[in-house]
Amino acid sequence: MAKVSVIVPTYNRAQYLPRALNSVLAQTYRDYEVIVVDDGSTDETPQAMKPFEGRVTYVRQKNGGSASARNRGIEEAKGEYIAFLDSDDYWVADKLEAQVRILDAHPKVGIVYGRMPIVNEKGEKIGMKPAGVSGRNFKELLDVWGDLPTSTVMTRRVCFEKAGMFDTSLTTMQDIDMWLRIARLYDLYEIEGQVLAYYCRHGSQATSDKVKVYGGLVRIYKKIFKTFPDAPRDVMVKRIASNQYMLSRSYYDRRLYTDALRNLAETLLRYPHVGTLFWESRDGSGGKAFKLVKPYLYFGICALKAAGQGTKIFLKPFAEKSK
Prior knowledge:
By secondary structure, the protein is α/β, with parallel strands linked by helices. It is built from twelve helices and eleven strands.
């Protein structure tokens, strides 16, 4: 039985998947199994998997999203430790070796991770993920909204038995939710100064869709607010409000005025001074005053646009939703 199970969820990533799998098969640490969960791909993924027959377990399922695919991989896994690799990213050769050493030595550690250079399709470095500070425990993750890049994460199988599986009701940000739940039970360990994996930036990623990004952040902050009583309430309210305001603007940019108005109304009912969350140090008194009233000016414009699309404006349902 392999000690490490490597789970690679994929959906229409045939052009990137071989690179990801080759980076796993090139690992210096050898006691592992590889499980590819094809989440209903409609491209050439089955053909791309043929060169890996006999070395990789390939599972196809009906499309259910990345959380569903990761959960299927966990169910299929036999290893004590579980590592994740998104199919458009790739690892350095000693990634597994470094992480197994840490988990073996530190039984209270539930997640080992590192930072990922962001590269474009030419392989040029264009950033770092996460760009800022990260968190070493549950409180720090919430305080700084620390990002644990999924393709660098290795965790223990027992973590999922205690914290539960990935939440399939979250269409994005399921990994952040999962790491937060594990962080309530275990320590986190960042391998500093060592690159473990590379994050590949391309145009078809969910993170390029602002509606998905802000919508995912709103949903996860609402979940944290409801399910984690030890989460700072005022911080969560402000984060829900600021991200829902940006979600409203994203809908407006798509001319989806009804969705824009609904999210804006909920934002203002939850946090009437949402404009203050966008104050910057360079803003003078006039700039701050404008940002304070701007959401209400925007509300008027949005209401007119929505009415032009036949939307009837009722605020009571929004008030009920914002609780």
